[in-house]
Amino acid sequence: MKSAFRNAVALRTLPHYHFINPHFHSLPRFSVAAVSSPPSSLVSPSKPETFRFRRRSSPLRVRYSSMTGGETDAPASMEKQFEDFRVKLDEAGSLRERIRAVVNEIESITRLMHASLLHVHQSRPLSEVLEKPKAQVDGLKELYGRLAEVLCECPGEYYRFHNDWRSETQTVVSLLAFMHWLETGKLLMHTEAEEKLGMNQAEFALDIEDYLIGLCFLSNEMPRYVVNQVLAGNYDCPRKVLRFLTDLHAAFRMLNLRNDFLRKKFDSLKYDLKRVEEVYYDMKIRHLANGDSAEDNGTQGQS
Amino acid sequence: MFHAPALRSWISSSRSPIIMASKSKTHRLHQLSGTALQSIAKRPRTITTESYMKDAFANYAGYLNELNEKRERVVKSSRDITINSKKVIFQVHSRDNKEEVLKKAEADLEAVKDQYISRLVKELQGTDFWKLRRAYSPGVQEYVEAATFCKFCRTGTLLDLEELNAGLLPLSDPAIEPLQINVFDYLLGLADLTGELMRLAIGRISDGELEFAEKICRFSRDIYRELTLVVPLMDNNSDMKTKMDTMLQSVLKIENACLSVHVRGSEYTLLGSSDPSFLMGVPDMQS
Where in or outside the cell is it found (chain A) (predicted)? Predict the structure, then answer.
């Protein structure tokens, strides 16, 4: 921004340039505020006399009077339009604040759920681990309901504010999917996730990309889970997880992904799968895996 | 463009026997995996992957394909709008036959609307206006710039958003949600307008149209001033803030060009309009 000022000064304008835009002293966001203190060495008044004289004459009156606000330069219609904009944007701003408030609550519940679920790495019994998180799902559903209400006030603008709750929702999906898998061994479907969160309304649905990214976050947890289960003596786990992740990976490969965030997450899924395979392989060759039957040769023989 | 990543991942993960020919039609994909199932009999285990997952993901794939294809088409039509709006703007800067040129520019602007914006309307089909905004925003901004530019040259006033959008209503089928320029694209386009106004002012000064240049000066000041109050309220306003910096520079250049003319007023008429040396006070610092 300094360069703009240097330009202005080098153009041999009045050294009092910083008075021209008093607004900016109160709007620190704009770097233009830096205009306020000109280094005096840059000021080159080669014709000081002429300038000072000219300043009092009429051609420059327009500039000064608009500075003091004595003249309303802008036609009424322009002012009105921008006034309308300000009002609308203000409303959107307060709407956004309300959304953020709900999202913060969602985030704190999510953190609690995640912390409870982490007990699964310490091989507590499953029912114990899942007890608290399951109870909190209802709280989440209620919060998403509130979010839906806020959004009802601006129909059609789901995606305008989408980024405000996007990443939290992805985390929520991953936690729900993890809980579902721990209980049933199956993948949580998009429609099932929507139902759990009450997001199956016309105007307020679970975005599919958010759901898919949530699944990738789920897979990120798997390698660690497998390692800790084996440490705790559960030698059956790797085979189950491997089958699950292989299926999930194969399913993901059906998607035509562009080079975006989802694609990157899908790549991380590959590495998770690889890691689980390694653990399973290590166990297999040491004949530690349960159910070491001929049919398992199929999965094992590929790496 | 879609095929490469899926294919690459297939090649790198050499474990799956299923040949995933990465075609965009999902039902064809199902048929393919079906035939693969029968032909690779020696490894039945790995192929009996959960069908519930596959079915579901076939749907997700369909959804993503549709979305991405739509996005591509929108981007393409946005690009067309950008190119043709730029042509309109460029015409208006022409120094000869200004009245004729303006008429032609206005006609071309109408053509941009009738051909290219209507194409955008068709591709969007009344949905995903916010979801795909990033895809069409540049084109719309350029159009706003062109439209407000022409309007100013014609009447000296600012084309407001309501009027601009009213002109777009006939393009949409009454049964669907019409494409309406949102306030952000309008403001972003307006920010770019001052750059063009600056170029116009400098051009008109050297043609001797000082009054018009002063008009431009007042106009751009007004826009800048109004925008300073609105920009802090915009969501995700980082690009707008950069534009404000550029805008201030344009306004400064216009003001200083006008100043030079005022200060040297009498000298200017002696020098004549063909002598650019009076513009010495306005060196082009940043071209």
Answer: Cytoplasm; Nucleus
- Residue A69, pLDDT above cutoff 50: no
Q: Which residues contact A217 (CB under 8 A, 6 or more apart)?
A: A170, A171, A173, A174, A265
Q: What is the pLDDT of residue A62?
A: 41
Q: Which two tokens stand for residue B142?
A: 């350029």
- Asked if the Cβ–Cβ distance from B53 to A27 is below 8 Å, we say no
| Six token digits for residue B38 | 């029968």
SS3 at position A200: strand
Q: Is residue B245 part of a domain?
A: yes
A11 at interface of B, judged by CB pairs closer than 8 A: yes
C-alpha B258/C-alpha B220 separation (Å) is: 13
Q: Do the Cβ atoms of A256 and B24 come closer than 8 Å?
A: yes
Q: How far apart are CA A258 and CA B4, in angstroms?
A: 9
Q: Which residues of B touch A158 (CB under 8 A)?
A: 130
B235 in the same domain as B259:
yes
Mean of all residue pLDDT scores within chain A = 78
Torsion angle in degrees (nearest 10) through CA of A211, A214, A215, A216: 130
DSSP string, A229-256: HHHTT-TTHHHHHHHHHHHHHHHHTTS-
> Distance between CA B30 and CA B27 in Å, rounded?
5
Nearest of B137, B80, B134 to residue B112 by alpha carbon: B80
Summarised one tens digit per residue, pLDDT across range A93-147 is: 999 999 999 999 999 999 999 999 999 888 788 888 899 999 999 999 999 999 9
Instruction: Report the distance separating Cα A292 and Cα A284, nearest Å.
Output: 8
Please state, in angstroms and rounded to a whole number, the distance separating the CA atoms of residues B73 and B69: 6
Cite the DSSP H helix spans in chain B: 3-12, 26-39, 44-47, 51-92, 98-111, 118-124, 133-155, 161-168, 183-206, 210-230, 238-263, 265-271
Do B109 and B198 lie in one domain? The reply is no
With contacts defined as CB-CB under 8 Å, which chain B residues touch A79?
Answer: 226
